[in-house]
Known about the structure:
Blueprint: H1 3-9, E1 13-19, E2 22-30, E3 33-41, H2 49-63, E4 67-71, H3 82-97, E5 101-105, H4 107-115, H5 122-132, H6 154-170
Parallel strand pairs: 1-4, 4-5
Antiparallel strand pairs: 1-2, 2-3
Amino acid sequence: xxxxxxxxxxxxxxxxxxxxxxxxxxxxxxxxxxxxxxxxxxxxxxxxxxxxxxxxxxxxxxxxxxxxxxxxxxxxxxxxxxxxxxxxxxxxxxxxxxxxxxxxxxxxxxxxxxxxxxxxxxxxxxxxxxxxxxxxxxxxxxxxxxxxxxxxxxxxxxxxxxxxxxxxxxx
Length: 171
């Protein structure tokens, strides 16, 4: 089957959750089928937007999504830094230059979608995701104590939550 024919039957959605050290990424075939999900960490300091953007460009060129889903950094509930807000704008500009559809959802939008499952915190949202999506490439970390840092794999669940929010809002 040719690449063009395959793209018509399968609409690949790429959800990218940008954070201070890199990004979490989730590739969807549909709302309950995550083809791949992982975290990309930039190890060389200083962490510059151009380094992160280059890695995201590589992922977009590799997966060839039809839709790119990002967090709305100016939306209610977002606590992103100026650098991350600028990076999200750069990702959006790059995706649009590739003629890809770009959608953005705020943390509030994500909470609204997962409120139907009585999931309010990031951990509860991640737990709902692991209970409802089979064969996830990542496992749920233990619930953290208030004095512990967030587990790095939570960024992957943030990306998956963005993708699920996209499907919920558009279908």
